[in-house]
Amino acid sequence: MSSLPKLPFSKTRRIDSTVYLSGELGFDADGTIPAGIEAQTRNCMNRIQATLETEGLGLANVVSCTCYLTDTADFAAFNKVYGQFFADPLPVRTTVRADLMIDAKVEITVIAKA
After folding, report:
1. Contacts 24+ apart (CB under 8 A), 98-103
2. How large a percentage of the chain has pLDDT more than 90?
3. Which helix (H) or strand (E) is 93 found in, with range?
4. Using 50, 70 and 90 to split pLDDT, how confident is the model at 5?
5. Cα–Cα distance, 74 to 104 (Å, whole number)
6. Does 93 have pLDDT greater than 90?
7. CA nearest neighbour of 102 among 18, 15, 9, 31
8. Are 40 and 26 in contact (CB under 8 A)?
9. What average pLDDT does the segment 49-72 reach?
10. Cβ distance 98 to 68 under 8 Å?
11. Which residues, other chains included, contact 50 with Cβ-Cβ below 8 Å and sequence gap of 6+?
């Protein structure tokens, strides 16, 4: 992902035992975004998991997710993929329709507790 420009925000922020992750998009390893919601959601979740691991955490530490979809028609397909990444107890979640700053279908941000 070295082809992506440096942006003016932190990818993660740890305050005491809480870790905040910036919104993650569904980039492939080469910096491109695949066409479909399922591939983008899978990439988002894999990238979130990798970022959490750099903080010594995993998806089981996630307590809250905010998910942004550009098309409400994608909700069922998004939810199917998203659900494969979490086990009980599930994190709380808010999902909204939003225009994103780049041509992507989904953006996900999480809060995790160490």
Report:
1. 98/68, 98/69, 98/70, 99/70, 100/25, 100/68, 100/70, 102/25, 102/33, 103/33
2. 89
3. strand 92-97
4. low
5. 12
6. yes
7. 31
8. yes
9. 98
10. yes
11. none
